[in-house]
Amino acid sequence: MPEASAPIVRIRNLSKAYRRGTQVIPVLTDINFDIARGEFVALMGPSGSGKSTLLNLIAGIDSADQGSIQVGDVEITTLGESDLARWRAGSVGFIFQFYNLIPVLTAYENVELPLLLTHLSRRERSEHVEAVLNVVGLADRMDHYPSQLSGGQQQRVAIARAIVTDPEILVADEPTGDLDRASAEEILQLMDRLVREFGKTVIMVTHDPRAAEKAHLIRHLEKGELSVT
Amino acid sequence: MGIPYSYSFRNLWTRRLTTVLTASGMGLVVFVFAATLMLTEGLEKTLVETGSSDNVVLLRKSANSEVQSGVERDQASLLESQPEIAIGADGRPLLAKELVVLINLKKRVGDKPANVIIRGIDAASLKLRPAVRLKEGRMPRPGSAEVVAGESVAQRFKGCGLGETLRFGMRDWRVVGVFDAGATGFSSEIWGDRDQMMQAFRRPVYSSMIFRLRDTGAFDAYKARVEADPRLTVEAKRETQYYLDQSEAMAKFLRILGLVLTVIFSIGAVIGATITMYAAVANRVTEIGTLRALGFQRKSILASFIIEALLLGLCGGILGIFAASFMQLITISTMNWASFSELAFSFTLNFSIVWKSLLFSAVMGFVGGALPALRASRMNIVEALRAT
């Protein structure tokens, strides 16, 4: 078992560039960065600073050109595509700006989706789904389709989907970007609760200084380089 | 476990109008496919059911049908006395020497002429065809100018109804009965006394002989002996084989025609399905990215879209079969090119056709969905998520 104080995310000498024809556009340059277990980190920076790319790399949905990313005990930059997908299914919870719920599935079925990749029985899945829907306060809306829910409610269902497999880290890309102030506040409080009560590690990309205030640590990215606030 | 089937099904349901339109296009192709098979099946069934495997037909060597055949009287006498022939309850051999002639009659609708088979029958003819039952009137009296008409002929040709009079062989023939021969070729024939007809048509020889085997297993030995006999110029066939041979040319023609039509139409339907599935993929780029981010593998995405395309194809298949099933209500008549006579038959739907049609529709769905599904599975996760 890793020590409680050991970082859950260790990033070393991470670089990433995009290529457009012969042109190489550096996005991240030699990033070194640790995130402690149970920490709520906000990544801020202007558009194009590379914060979403950094988040995608930590979440294992994009590949680095150079450097290493260790999440828990796993060096994810060495994983093949299938192994990476399996790792994501068990270790990462995703929270998106536009919730990204599947419109043809009910709230219950959306939350159940990641559990379909586990070996849990139907009954066990049902117990897990109901438990997390209770955590986000939407147990009474489990049969509703996304279109029957408000933006804030949809984001809460998305958070339930993100935590249902009990992942090590939660990555959130502008989680309040599409919400009104009241709903955004609710979501931020819920994320804060996930950190405090459930010990989750949250890495959030945001433009909103109010959202960033909830974080324990704010990291600024500018032209692909990190600074600490 | 992969992406649940309900995801594919509900996506089709959500795009109901597109689904119905695409499935209808595929349904139309399946309809043509199934209808052609039903037509071929109906033709084969009609001709094959006309025969009985216990019965043997004797024709002149190399004659393809009774119309082209002739059996000399002296040969008939020899053949009559063979030991393989079954004996009826009345102690007489179950054997009939028959005359088959084509005449031209006008149809009730449209006044168009068509060939009809006139069969001169023997006392045993009816016993040899248990499927033939008198429906109205009575059988012709031996030695009289009376005939009975098959139900299909009675309905479709002028002068062939009960009580009506036909003129052929320079004589008038009164229709004294109508017989029901089920879905067999006999329904398209007119039967009368053989000797009267031989006189009327100035025919000195019989067209064919038919008899029931005493032991059905004795056929091969009988055939070998009779066909090797230098006094005889006949060929023996089981009655079922004889009628199957008759249906072969027409069935082959229908099959090829159906196949050509189906292949051409199916190209259009597959393109339709491909467009629909590409649109489905294009509308769900973010969903695909999300599913991949959640940990679903490329093959799960591929399977999910393939299942959706298969479901789309099967919807088309069910629509096509449903529409084609109504074709069973239609009886059509066409020229049987083996005998040059008019033959009435119905579209016949059976389990095999249903199965083949569904398989065909699923294949169309698969072919139409393969490329879009491949595209969906190959999407870059980050780019797909950016499509929001």
From TrEMBL, chain A:
Matches recorded under Pfam families: ABC_tran (PF00005)
Any one GO CC term of the record: membrane protein complex
Residue span(s) of domain ABC transporter: 9-228
SMART domains listed in its UniProt record: AAA (SM00382)
InterPro entries from the UniProt entry: AAA+_ATPase, ABC_transporter-like_ATP-bd, ABC_transporter-like_CS, ABC_transpr_LolD-like, MacB-like_ATP-bd, P-loop_NTPase
UniProt keyword annotation of Oxidoreductase present: no
Keywords: ATP-binding, Nucleotide-binding, Transport
A GO molecular-function descriptor: ATP binding
Keyword Phosphoprotein: no
Similarity field: Belongs to the ABC transporter superfamily. Macrolide exporter (TC 3.A.1.122) family.
Name assigned to this protein: ABC transporter ATP-binding protein
TrEMBL record, chain B:
Residue ranges of domain MacB-like periplasmic core in the record: 19-228
Keywords: Cell membrane, Membrane, Transmembrane, Transmembrane helix
Keyword Membrane appears in the UniProt entry: yes
TM spans (from-to): 20-39, 256-281, 301-322, 353-374
InterPro entries given in the database record: ABC3_permease_C, MacB_PCD, Macrolide_Exporter_MacB
UniProt key word Transmembrane helix: yes
Domain ABC3 transporter permease C-terminal: 260-381
GO cellular component, one term: plasma membrane
GO molecular function, one term: transmembrane transporter activity
Subcellular localization, as worded in the UniProt entry: Cell membrane
Recorded topology in the membrane: Multi-pass membrane protein
PANTHER family: ABC TRANSPORTER PERMEASE, MEMBRANE COMPONENT OF TRANSPORTER-RELATED
Listed name of the protein: Multidrug ABC transporter permease
Organism expressing this protein natively: Geomonas paludis
